[in-house]
Amino acid sequence: MTQLPDDSPKSREEFEQTFLTNVTTCQWEPHPLYSVFTQYDQQYYLDRARVFLCKYKCFYAVSKTISPKKIIEMGVLAGSSADAYLSAAPGAEYLGIDRFDVNTRQDDYSPWDPYDIARRLFESRGFRNYKLLKTDLRALSSLPYRADFVIVDAAHDFDSAYADLKLAMTASPTFLFVDDSDDVNDAKPAIDKFLSQEINGRIDYTVHIAYQGGGLVIKLKDAN
């Protein structure tokens, strides 16, 4: 596993306490031009602005609590979540993997290119140590390199979520973070199967993060 800083949480209780401090003191705000509140289906998020602002501040707090050196995010879209993760860990190396499919804006029907927007977002924020990989996750047998923090946030149907969790393990992470983990129809059953059948005995602790859709932090034991 990739070595984490000495101040990375050593227990569930320490993680929860540090996360609570980080989320309650978080002053990060979504980018005014490049966020879920400005994307192709922005009205959905604007109608639920309070809960989604809370969600993205939780992303920030999770990253700040972990203080990762290397981040791999599976499922990037246009980088809104990466903005939160990297703002909390500005020195981290980041790899974002997505198909980056072009969508159509719902207001004026113009093309909405998430790859281009993510690059503009990162440039505006001053992020430099990043790479964006255009590919289908199902085309990968392993992730490109090791990372201490791997985020699983692509398709949330059972088969995709389960396959993404297995793929995430090829990076030998110390922390996994699964977004929308509360989906009882697809993602949650996939997570439960993964935890019991794929990494049973390798879990140090888990922490549920309460926000829209829910998130699950999985701390893995050192393989050594």
Task: Report what the structure shows.
By secondary structure, this protein is α/β, with parallel strands linked by helices. The chain has a single domain, classed as 3-Layer(aba) Sandwich (Rossmann fold), CATH 3.40.50. It contains 7 helices and 9 strands, in the order αααβαβββαββαβαββ. The strands form 2 sheets. Strands 5-2-1-6-7-9-8 form a 7-stranded mixed beta sheet, with helices on both faces. Strands 3-4 form a two-stranded antiparallel ribbon. Helix 6 (158-168) links the parallel strand 6 and strand 7. The model has no long low-confidence stretch (mean pLDDT 94).
| Terminal Cα span | 8 Å
Main sheet strand line-up: 5-2-1-6-7-9-8
The CATH C-level class name = Alpha Beta
CATH architecture: 3-Layer(aba) Sandwich
**Biggest sheet architecture:** 7 strands, mixed
**Poorly predicted spans:** none
Fraction of residues in H or I helices: 25-40%
Strand content: 15-25%
Fourth CATH level, the homologous superfamily: Vaccinia Virus protein VP39
Number of domains: 1
Shape: globular
The total of beta strands comes to 9
What name does CATH use for the topology? Rossmann fold
Secondary structure: elements and pairs:
Blueprint: H1 12-24, H2 42-46, H3 49-66, E1 70-74, H4 80-88, E2 93-98, E3 103-104, E4 111-112, H5 114-125, E5 130-134, E6 149-152, H6 158-168, E7 175-179, H7 187-198, E8 203-209, E9 215-220
Parallel strand pairs: 1-2, 1-6, 2-5, 6-7
Antiparallel strand pairs: 3-4, 7-9, 8-9
Helix pairs in contact: 1-3, 3-4, 6-7
